Amino acid sequence: DTAVSQTPKYLVTQMGNDKSIKCEQNLGHDTMYWYKQDSKKFLKIMFSYNNKELIINETVPNRFSPKSPDKAHLNLHINSLELGDSAVYFCASSQARDSDSYNSPLHFGNGTRLTVT
Amino acid sequence: LAKTTQPISMDSYEGQEVNITCSHNNIATNDYITWYQQFPSQGPRFIIQGYKTKVTNEVASLFIPADRKSSTLSLPRVSLSDTAVYYCLVGSRSGGYQKVTFGTGTKLQVIP
Predict the structure, then answer these.
(1) Which one of B31, B98, B105 has the shortest CB-CB distance to A96?
(2) What's the pLDDT tens digit per position in A102-115?
């Protein structure tokens, strides 16, 4: 019973291609996130959705477009891939609903290692 | 955003107690302190969270002084499997919602 699952685990593609990463959580959480971990292992938040609504967008290039068909899914589509997009992308979820519960722990998937050649 | 500072790396022998201290001088009144553990090729995993004084669970203890400007994660009797990166975070908000920002973390190496 994987709580937060991402597919694919590995993704190797060429510059200029378009690719998608899927994420699903079965925890019943309201909020989902995408994080990017670069080669220096620094984890940086990209997006956050609450009940299918975008609530955080950390000045990520327009080539990155998250989509949340329902509150259990948050997919990430990347257009025109660049070398600098190579990283590990983590999906996460939390129970945070409002400002009173914004300290809710995050539950992470195991990541998607994207390599752009 | 409350920024956190923690040591880049630490080494410890198996069986020892490990204490990792994190400073967060600008922590806000409503912020909790949360620690995560990350193994290679895995996502971060929640370890423990606290607001003040001491919190203990089956994995670790978290000590928070009265001024809350720092916190210490204590791992009792570490084993080789505790080798990982440990992140200290304080909560922050963006438009009323949670925005969790990770720092550089502390890479703990447990030595046999």
Answers:
(1) B98
(2) 567 889 999 999 99
